[in-house]
Amino acid sequence: MSAAAATSPCRICGGSVREFLDLGRQPLSDTFVDPEDTSGGFVYELRVGRCGDCTMVQLVEEVPREMMFTADYPFFTASSTRMVEHFTRTAQWLLDEHCCSEDPFVIEIGANDGTMLATIAGRGVRHLGVDPAGLPGEDATERGVVMLHDFFETRTAELIRTEHGLADVIFAANTLCHIPALDDVFAGIDAVLAPHGVVVFEDPSLSDVLRLTSFDQIYDEHFYVFSATSVARAARGWGLELVDVAALPVHGGELRYTLARSGTREATPAVAAVLEDEAALGVDDPATFDLFAERVRRHRDELVGELTRLREDGVRVAGYAATAKSATVLNYGGIGPELLPAIHDTTPQKQHRLAPGSRIPVLPFPDEADEPDVYLLLAWNHSEEIMAKERAFADRGGRWLVYVPEVRLI
Ligand code: DWN
Ligand code: ZN
């Protein structure tokens, strides 16, 4: 992209965001379409930029939150057994490390189906899950989790403080990067966090997105791609400090950040180590992002080329998992039912509907007789779990087409 690239104001610091990647016109990634509906639906421009002042990577166009996190939001954390294990361990860690007061209180922002809080609830610890999404919230209630069906912001934080008091832990996984208006969220956190409390959150890490060229981590719901560098700077503006950071081997590479009120805790050595690692990777250098954008365009072309070759050779290909992130790959690549006739997925709310934008039918997983020759692994972030589960498919000669970190048929 040239030096005259478009700029817009940073949602974190007001600085200048320089656009480095245009992923084209995109639909709502989690709105699976009724086959009868030919209206085309809502579209927006998925353009990505980086703030020259605070380094935060962010979308240029914001999709209204009410359009994304609806009553029938179809993503359930428990759809991955590895993620259930991860959040059971996370809950245990929060209980051991951060719930040491006499009567601890834990808030989870974006509690989804209550997978994490179920362990906290099971220990009889006071907690509250906050999430506007209806269907996953029903599962959370069934798991014994106390829920507030709303967005977390200053308004709701003040209500929570009045009703429950101050929180020892405010946790969020795969949620804060979804919220453009973080200033309001952190004003709410300031209102309800105990003086010695912690804010712990997990989100896809910019380093891993750059290293793996995993551009499908970017879609309407993922407004920000956080790094320790950008989070440390943003935290200062919210009266907080980054006191710990840990790499997590989930969802294609995430970081878990721990923030505390400024001056209340000493930062662990991991903070300086991750900041150094990010500096070495070039998160402060605009050229890093232009090179990333070049790789993204190459990967898209290679993927479309491979799918085209497979079709010409008469190979039957289907998508594995109708992920939200696959909307980016499919629509950016112009991949429709001619190249990918179906996507198989375990979520009943997505089945027998069409993938957004691409209008590829989403179906339950087929019997052995109807299996494709090749699965395009759209849930590459769960590859270990899926490859282990589908060993029999590979044993029968089935192959996987992957596109992260490179386009490869395996
Ligand atoms: O941040 C977000 C992440 C955590 O979850 C949200 N914005 C939305 C969602 O993103 P996603 O849909 O890209 O998430 P996953 O976990 O990569 O994919 C979930 C989908 O994959 C579900 O539709 C279920 C499906 N799936 C499957 O069919 N078989 C998943 C697994 C593990 C499987 O074995
Ligand atoms: Zn900024």
Describe the structure.
The chain has 410 residues and is of the alpha/beta class. The protein contains 13 helices and 19 strands. It has helices spanning 65-68, 81-98, 117-122, 134-142, 154-164, 182-192, 206-212, 228-237, 269-281, 286-312, 326-332, 383-389, 391-395; strands at residues 7-9, 16-27, 43-51, 57-59, 105-109, 126-130, 147-148, 167-173, 193-204, 224-225, 240-248, 254-261, 317-320, 343-344, 353-354, 361-363, 374-377, 399-402, 408-409. The strands form three sheets. The chain has a seven-stranded mixed beta sheet. Bound molecules: ligand DWN and zinc ion. The site of ligand DWN has 21 residues, from helix 12.
Summarize the structure.
The protein is α/β, with parallel strands linked by helices and 410 residues long. The protein is 33% helix and 24% strand. It has 13 helices and 19 strands.
Features:
globular; alpha/beta; 410 residues; seven-stranded mixed sheet; single chain; binds zinc ion; 13 helices; binds ligand DWN
